[in-house]
Design goal:
The structure holds 2 protein chains of 2 kinds. Chain A has helices at 37-44, 106-110, and strands at 3-6, 11-14, 19-23, 53-59, 67-73, 79-84. By secondary structure, chain A is mainly beta. Chain A has a single domain, classed as 2-Layer Sandwich (Folate-binding fold), CATH 3.30.2270. In chain A, the strands form 2 sheets. A 4-stranded antiparallel β-sheet of chain A has the order 3-4-5-6, with no helix packed on it. In chain A, strands 1-2 form a two-stranded antiparallel ribbon. Chain B has one domain: Gyrase A, domain 2 (2-Layer Sandwich), CATH 3.30.1360. Chain B has a 6-stranded antiparallel β-sheet. Chain B has helices spanning 41-48, 85-90, 115-120, 166-180, and strands at residues 16-17, 22-25, 30-36, 59-62, 65-71, 74-79, 96-100, 105-111, 137-142, 145-153, 156-162. Classes of the chains: A mainly beta, B alpha+beta. The A-B interface holds A 1, 8-11, 13-14, 16-17, 62-66 and B 56-57, 70-72, 74, 124-125, 131, 138-141, 146. The complex binds zinc ion. The site of zinc ion (ZN) has 7 residues of chain A, from loops. Chain A: This is Sarcosine oxidase subunit delta. Chain A: InterPro entries: SoxD, SoxD_sf. Chain A: Pfam families: SoxD. Chain A: One of its GO terms (molecular function) is sarcosine oxidase activity.
């Protein structure tokens, strides 16, 4: 079972208690009435969907109920860290990211299982 | 005889469990969903006669009245003596939100040496003695529903759930109690 650290409960809890809330640190334009349709589309609909490190909003909906942010590796599904909503985006540029080779999948182990 | 609506408890008459873990419907109680900011905690604690807990997964209990920490500004208050908690809240002028959930919730008591095992059959929370000691409380899940779990004694747990989900919760816990005893 995947465990996620909740910065408000201050401990790791089961993924069953959490809900994903989309990308974090998306700033709403302050001049929302002035921007073009294309700029609005960029802000509102378009996401990077990176392979590797991503910053996301998560909600501990079946626990303390709080929204918080987390850095997750989209290849390994590893949660690198989580932090309270409103806190600045941490600099994790030195953090090693996973490659497909570091991830154990059913398909990868199936052939060698005896 | 006058026509009179009879109130029927959602789990009336049910019993289950095993020699190691008894599963019983809890008696009726009054309950409050309480939300308040840091500055109102002191006043509310005085009014309710117990210190509202500020740490995750903790609770405070005074003679049948319990305050369970659910979130940084959220508590579930339970009064087993049926005291009018809304009446107390309405006398507090400090900014807060109180909602009577006495009849939204019902509770199931699980007790005995295998009680933790019975609950763990459907609940992902770590129920070990150091991480979930007597007095610990948390909102979590049981199977497919949300519950609030409160450890009221060494071998005693109170499972609070929404009343319409209670037959499901009761069935799961009764099954878990039988499995935990194997
Ligand atoms: Zn939490």
């Amino acid at each position: 079972m995947l465990l996620i650290y909740c910065p408000y409960c201050e401990e790791e809890r089961s993924e069953l208690e959490f809900r994903h809330g989309g990308d974090a640190h998306i700033a709403r334009p302050t001049n929302i009435a002035d921007i073009t349709d294309e700029e609005f589309q960029d802000y509102f609909f378009l996401r990077d969907n990176p392979k590797g490190l991503i910053f996301e909003r998560w909600r501990h909906i079946h626990g303390c109920g709080r929204f918080f942010n987390a850095a997750r590796d989209t290849v390994s599904d590893k949660f690198v860290m989580s932090y309270k909503a409103g806190e600045p985006k941490p600099n994790l540029s030195g953090e090693p990211t996973a490659t497909e080779k570091t991830v154990e999948t059913y398909e990868a182990t199936e052939g060698t299982a005896k | 005889m006058a026509d009179q609506a009879l109130r029927k408890a959602p789990l009336a008459g049910r019993h289950g469990g095993s020699a190691g873990a008894r599963v019983t419907p809890a008696a009726a109680a009054t309950r409050l969903s309480l939300r308040a900011g840091e500055d109102a905690i002191g006043t509310l604690s005085l009014a309710f006669g117990l210190e509202l807990p500020r740490r995750p997964k903790t609770s405070a209990s005074v003679s049948g009245r319990h305050a369970l920490w659910l979130g940084p500004d959220e508590w579930l208050l339970i009064d087993e003596n049926g005291t009018d908690l809304m009446g107390i809240a309405s006398g507090v002028s400090a900014l807060h939100s109180a909602t009577d959930v006495s009849h939204r919730n019902t509770a199931i008591l699980v007790s005995g040496p295998d009680a933790a095992g019975a609950i763990a059959s459907a609940c992902p929370l770590d129920l070990g003695n150091t991480i979930f000691p007597v007095g610990a409380a948390a909102r979590t899940v049981l199977g497919k529903i949300e519950i609030v779990l409160f450890r009221s004694g060494e071998e005693d747990y109170r499972v609070e759930c929404w009343r319409s989900f209670s037959p499901y919760a009761f069935g799961l816990l009764a099954e878990g109690a039988e499995d935990a005893g194997l």
